[in-house]
Amino acid sequence: MIYDCIVIGGGVIGTAVLDRLARYNMNVLLLEKEDDVASFTTRANSGIVHAGYDCDPCTAKARFNVRGNELMWRDAQELDVPHLKCGSIVVATAEQRDKLEALAQKAAKNGVEVKILDREQTFAIEPNVADCIEYSLYAPSAGIISPYQLAIAYADRAILNGAKIELCSPVTAIKKTANGYLATTPSGEYESKIVVNCAGANGAEINDLAGAEHYETTYRRGDYFVLDNSERKNVHTVIFPLPTAAGKGILVAPTADGNVIYGPTAVDTSDTSDTATTRESLDSIRANVPLSYKCAAFNKCIRVYAGLRTLIGHDFVIKQSDVLENFIMAIGICSPGLSSAPAIAEYIEDIVTGKLDPAKKENTISVMPKRKRLTELSDGEIDALIAKDSAWGRIVCRCEKVTEAEIVEAIHSPLAATTVDAVKRRTRAGMGRCQGGFCGPRVMEIISRELNIPLSEVKKGGGASIARYRVKEVE
Ligand SMILES: Cc1cc2nc3c(=O)[nH]c(=O)nc-3n(C[C@H](O)[C@H](O)[C@H](O)COP(=O)(O)OP(=O)(O)OC[C@H]3O[C@@H](n4cnc5c(N)ncnc54)[C@H](O)[C@@H]3O)c2cc1C
């Protein structure tokens, strides 16, 4: 079979592109290296939907961020992805006020609504900024979203609308054919008329495999603290320090799932596997958070993590290749890539449909069925669900109050969750205070039962084994 389009990479960019293309009469396929989508940068970032005031005017970053912010809230609602348009503030002392003016001028050039607030107005929005703060730049259109749930929801909707996703399929070679391209993976070869490269940290490598433009890539790691959900009551908006050349600085923000994060740092690295936090980097978060936020509570940390920014020069690279026909790339998508994803997908949809001129499918799904989450149901609704299915009465993750029924639903969702991490990203089982200490083995048993595989074959994610064999079977 010859596909119309193959998308390489299942981060938020690739899944958003697939979701758009699935609405047309085309055969579209996404090839993802890992055992789930959203397995790399898309799972480890700040989850902020930026307003777009601090991107340099006239760059791709500015253009796609501002348009992405407009589209994001509609996508989040249609896809039932946790989000909150809570606004953001950049805080400043009296001496730093002119820097806020400079940011406000950039915002005006980018067409983003912002307002400089005085001390009283700032504290009215966020009572817990540090006492030294006198001013802030308020951006009402900013907010937060669950980045991995967004990518998963794009993937699910794309599948329901007819797209295919092959997981565990790293592209290792790309050959030109009479029809277009042949992509080789360990599980098979796939031919298509058009290729869209959304391979994140490996984007430049995919270009090289195909013989498209060569780009030098650099990487910048960002470390974070995740705080217990008891801290959520203290944070009302996204709190940024003034940006620097290295990025937007160490923020304090609520997460769409109900926690609080402090971070990220900005550590240059050349290693794409460099996603382990370091003491030095975490210490710099400890030192910086109190400069903007007065309720820092590092003793409420439940986890640390790191994500990797992929940089190609100073801007995103989103275009049809100049040297290869029907080869499109969206690479070097560092921050604000999450915020820009819906707009990048819209742009790539125009390029692909401009080439193939497909008709739109009739009756595609745009609003996904609302997922039932125990924590959002009334007692009456819970009783009614238990009467139909007793799995609604069995709480597996006690920290996040996730039931067996929700886990079973995730395992049988359009893009099936087949690992403990995949279940965690869809249901939050294991994301709470105990970090899966109690529910992990139970989640493994449910996966084993539902997929009819031995417990020893249930993986954590990324191929990592948890249980190798039964202890009593060992000689
Ligand atoms: C610390 C940090 C904080 C950030 N904060 C924000 C923020 O608050 N707001 C915001 O807007 N943006 C933020 N970003 C940026 C945002 O996270 C990224 O722009 C976005 O996640 C990039 O998505 P992607 O799909 O390009 O890459 P990825 O999510 O990395 O996806 C690429 C996919 O391609 C797959 N792949 C790689 N090679 C191959 C291959 N050979 N074959 C098949 N598949 C392959 C990978 O496994 C991966 O799943 C942040 C980034 C970092 C690192």
List the keywords.
475 residues, alpha+beta, FAD/NAD(P)-binding domain, D-Amino Acid Oxidase, Chain A, domain 2, 3 domains, 8-stranded mixed beta sheet, 5-stranded antiparallel beta sheet, 12 helices, binds flavin-adenine dinucleotide
Describe it.
With 475 residues, the chain is of the alpha+beta class. The protein has three domains: 215 residues, FAD/NAD(P)-binding domain, CATH 3.50.50; 147 residues, D-Amino Acid Oxidase, Chain A, domain 2 (2-Layer Sandwich); 100 residues. It contains twelve helices and 24 strands. Strands 1, 2, 9, 10, 11, 12, 19 and 20 form an eight-stranded mixed β-sheet that branches. Strands 13, 15, 16, 17 and 18 form a five-stranded antiparallel β-sheet that branches. The chain has a four-stranded mixed β-sheet with strand order 6-7-5-14. The longest helix has 20 residues. The radius of gyration is 22 Å and the shape is globular. The chain starts with a strand and ends in a 10-residue tail after the last strand. The mean pLDDT is 96. The structure holds flavin-adenine dinucleotide. Flavin-adenine dinucleotide (FAD) binds next to helix 1, strand 18 and helix 8.
- Given the structure, what is the number of helices? 12
Note the main sheet.
Answer: 8 strands, mixed
Please give the alpha-carbon distance between the first and last residues: 50 Å
Bound ligands, each once:
flavin-adenine dinucleotide
The proportion of strand residues reads 15-25%
What's the level 1 CATH class of the largest domain?
Answer: Alpha Beta
Q: How many separate structural domains? A: 3
Shape verdict:
globular
- Give the C-alpha Rg: 22 Å
- The class by helix and strand makeup works out as alpha+beta
What do the pLDDT scores average to?
A: 96
- List low-confidence stretches: none
